[in-house]
Amino acid sequence: MTSYVLRRLTTALVMLWVVGTIVFSVLLIVPGDPAELLLTTGGADASTDAVENLRKKMGLDRPVAEQYVSFLADTARFDFGDSLIDGTPISETIALRLPRTLELIAVSMVVALALAIPAGTYAGLNAGKRFDRAASAVNALFTSIPGFVSGTLFIYLFAQVLRILPAGGYVAFAQDPWMHVQMLILPTVTVALHLMTIIFRMTRASVLEMRAHDWVRTGIAKGLRRRQVVRRHILRNALGPVITVVGLQLGILLGSTVLVEFVYNWPGLSGFLVSSVQQRDYPSVRAVILTVAAIFIAINFLVEVAYSLLDPRIRLT
Amino acid sequence: MSKPGHQIPEDFHALRQVEVNMTVKTPEFSPSRRTVLVGLGAGLTAMALPRNASAQSMKTLRYGLSTFPPSLAPWETNGNAANTVKLMIFRGLMGYDQDAKLVPELAESVEQPDAQTLIFKLRANAKFHNGEPVTAEDVIYSFSAIMAPESTAYLKASFQNVDTMEALDDKTLKITLKEPSAVFTQILANYCAGIVWAGSAEDDPIGAGPYTIKSQEKGVYVELERFPDFYDAGQPLSDTIRFIAYADENLRFAALEAGDVDVIEYLPWQQFENVRNSDRLEISATQGPFMLVLFNVAKEGPFADPLVRRAVGYAIKRQDVIDAAFAGNGEPLLGFPNPKGSQFDLSNPDAEWTYDPEKAKAMLAEAGYPNGFDCTLLATSTYGMHQDTASIVQAYLAMVGINATLDLPDWSSRIKAGKEGNYDIAVHGLSGFYNDPDAMWNLLHSGDANYVRSFGFSSERIDGLLEAGRAEIDPAKREAIYKELYQAYYDEVPQVPLNWRTQAHAFDSGSVTGFHCFPGWLNGSTAYVLDESAVS
Predict the structure, then answer these.
(1) pLDDT reported for residue B411
(2) Strands B534-535 and B330-332
(3) What is the pLDDT of residues A17-54, one digit of tens each?
């Protein structure tokens, strides 16, 4: 086990190095100069002279090899450096914003699970009946509406017409808990809707499949109560694939909440990544991508460990 | 940024608290239960009252910005949102009053004994946020930093006209210019000309504006707090201004409609009608920046010929650009862009482009292109208005035989292509920063290759007229010079103007008082109005 963990750790480090190097090179290839972009914001006429001076200030006039080596050395010391644009420490910004994205994802996931699993189970058990048909139709509808569209509609309805919820934004929970919750509602619903469609479909299909197995018939035949059959013999087996999908989605959401964050002005990590890319704030872009990559690798690792704990047939060697 | 300024209001509240406690003690002690109760009641009321009063006086104006200020460095230009916030923190020698009239700001008066000398008398009570008085030395420090060789300042080139700076005493400053300048005081009122305390650390510039930064979160908001020692005791009116960034223009408008903010900048053109029809919201708009066509005249080919460029001017129906890209909110611009609010009327129908495709075709034939030609048209996909304008221009050029292929890279690549001359023609939007024809200098005067000018274009005639207009103080003579420039612009065709576009702020008229936007190219300096804006 120890040697396994060591080996995985080494692989993880190599993977992070590869990711970092790829990001570093891609940013070099992408056209655009942070100094020039900053000084021409809004179409201003930046003089060549001012742009050159700012490049020097940002340290972009150093040779690429030197920049690369200092990037590796800093990252190895967990020092992401300062933003090129405003000089603020990048790790602070990430520490501030990552929890918000995680909060959005976690709350949405809980809401989605709480609604979609019972609904999916019920629809699967009563396939072809009225509820199943209605739920599947609604599901198909929401699957085909992307988050930024439903988001815009929600804002129009709840903020502009009914005026019962704020249009977007963020207030820290510590500062104003009630406002925080209000601002969380619409983004959560938007992300959760999308998740629900996936979880609902998966649960329904899985339940439908399990329902047909022999042991279910046996259970009913030997006189078990319906609830017991459903809970012990159908659901427990049906949830395996659902959990795999949920795990996958958690990882995907980390990168894909960006549209929802943008629509609702939710200041999470992906919004920071997008603005950093737009401003060509190289160190910020690298830091965010490395952070996300590290989380991905960690999740994968934990999943493997969890598998081995749950299923003795799987050995980690 | 300015910690000392931050401390003062807290102490102020502490003082008020002391007063409260004293009123509680005031009722005389008496054994009667009734009196005690009355006294307690009075005490509670007294305790409650100031709290209410302070809640009422803590008026926060919430302002929806189009983007989070990338940086608040005082002398760099970092876009309109940054300039707005900067103007609340830093102020210069000159400024604008509520009617957008140029007035002394941190200076109390300015005298001009001769065309090349300016003597500024600084306000006796002007203070920086750390409590230090604003002195002539601080001004010299700030302007020297703007002019320094390693400077990244927006106004570096404009300040090269300064010959000497001399502190006659603590509060008197003499500046001599290399050339007389009709617009130097306008430049001093720019949002990138703020005076900074000479002892400031490089990364913590201390200003003397009406507000200090109370708190901020990168990408989200900046909250400013009234600076109690601002030179104008009656201003600013709002205790707090909270600038909140809404990058999405529709969300920005939704936030205004939902009551999340009181004022927004850059009202999207599609929402003008909604605001006009609203009982609660009001619009304040001006014809601000202008859209135009730029040419690469350095390249061998048709656009090196002014006749072809002039033909382009006749080929485009401007109202269609306004309707398609700006939802009808703009005005056709037929000749030299003389900003709204300029003191001169330069219009001259003989030097203007009206829509006349036949004339355009005839000119193309005369230039040797009777069957038209192919070219590339550069714009950017980053800004919808640039892209839409380019599409209309492309369609109209096709009608006179010029087949343009659209090239729509992102903003960053667009700037690079413009600067390196990788285009035939380009569509762009531009603005000056004061309402005078001289503000066209950066866009027309020859110099280093820059994406705001036609690549490779230089005209001695236009350069000469710009220089003469700037160096002339007499308004009547300046008007004559700029009338000639108006003609030269038509003859030499450094650009083809398309239209003014309407730039609008929207606000909640029920709660906001004293807000309106500045006219023409001063629109970017509208933040001066926030001194007298308040919410109820």
Answers:
(1) 87
(2) unpaired
(3) 999 999 999 988 887 888 888 888 777 778 888 888 99
Please give the Cα distance from A257 to A146 (Å, whole number).
12
Quick: pLDDT tens for A48-63: 888 889 989 888 888 9
**Predicted local distance difference test score (pLDDT) of residue B486:** 97
- A302 pLDDT above the threshold of 80: no
Helix or strand (DSSP H, E) at B165: strand B162-169
Q: Which residue has the higher pLDDT, A1 or A14?
A: A14
Chain B, nearest residue to A37 by Cα:
B412
Tokens of A143: 């699957």
What distance in Å separates residue A78's CA from the closest CA in chain B? 21
Q: What is the ipTM of this complex?
A: 0.81
The rounded distance, in Å, linking the Cα atoms of A102 and B37 is 53
Of all residues in chain B, the one with the smallest CA distance to A165 is B258
Q: Say if the Cβ atoms of B218 and A263 lie within 8 Å.
A: no
User: What number of CA atoms fall less than 13 Å from residue B454's CA on the CB side?
Assistant: 26
What does the DSSP 8-state code read for residue B522? G
Q: Is A233 helix (H, G, I), strand (E, B) or coil?
A: helix
Distance CA B453, CA B481 (A): 22
- Token pair, residue A7, equals 């080996």
* Assigned CATH for B211-286+502-535: 3.40.190.10
CA distance B89 to B223: 11
For residue B217, which of A75, A95, A188 has the smallest C-alpha distance?
Answer: A95
Best of A51, A60, A86 to disrupt the B interface (most B CBs within 10 Å) is A86
Which residue among A86, A160, A280 sits closest to B218, beta carbon to beta carbon?
A: A86
Of B71, B152, B248, the CB nearest to A85: B71
> A298 falls in which pLDDT band (50, 70, 90)?
confident
Given a contact cutoff of 8 angstroms between Cβ atoms, the answer to whether B524 and B191 are in contact is yes
Is A56's CB within 8 Å of B443's CB?
A: no
Closest C-alpha to B135, from B124, B146, B145, B119: B124
pLDDT over 70 (residue A237): yes
Say yes or no to pLDDT of A106 above 80. yes
Question: How far off is chain A from B481, nearest CA to CA, in Å?
Answer: 25
Q: Which residues make beta-bridge pairs with B118? A: B175
**CB–CB of B251 and A263 under 8 A?**
yes
pTM over 0.80: yes
Q: What is the pLDDT of residues A241-258, one digit of tens each?
A: 888 788 778 878 887 788
Query: Over chain A, what is the mean pLDDT?
Result: 88
Do residues B242 and B61 touch, judged by C-beta distance below 8 A?
Answer: yes
Between chains, do A168 and B247 touch, taking CB under 8 Å as contact?
A: no
Alpha helices in B71-162 (DSSP H): 80-89, 136-147, 156-159
Say how far apart CA B38 and CA B359 lie, in whole Å: 91
User: What domains, with CATH codes, occur in chain A?
Assistant: 2-76 (no CATH), 90-316 (1.10.3720.10)
Give the start-to-end residue ranges of the domains of chain B.
211-286+502-535, 289-501
Which CATH code of 3.30.70.100, 3.30.870.10, 3.10.105.10, 3.40.50.300 fits the domain covering B289-501? 3.10.105.10
**Mutate which of B192, B204, B218, B431 to disrupt the A interface (most A C-beta within 10 Å)?**
B218
Q: Does the beta-carbon distance from B255 to A169 stay under 8 Å?
A: yes
Dist. CA B428–CA B490, nearest whole Å = 18
CA dist A98 and A254 (Å) reads 9
Low-confidence ranges of chain B (pLDDT < 70): 1-58
Please state at what angle helix A282-310 crosses helix A269-279, rounded to 10 degrees. 150
Q: What are phi and psi of B450, to 5 degrees?
A: -145, 145
Q: Indicate the pLDDT class of residue A317, thresholds 50, 70 and 90.
A: low
The pLDDT, as a whole number, for residue B28 is 39
* Omega before residue B437 within 30° of 0, cis: no
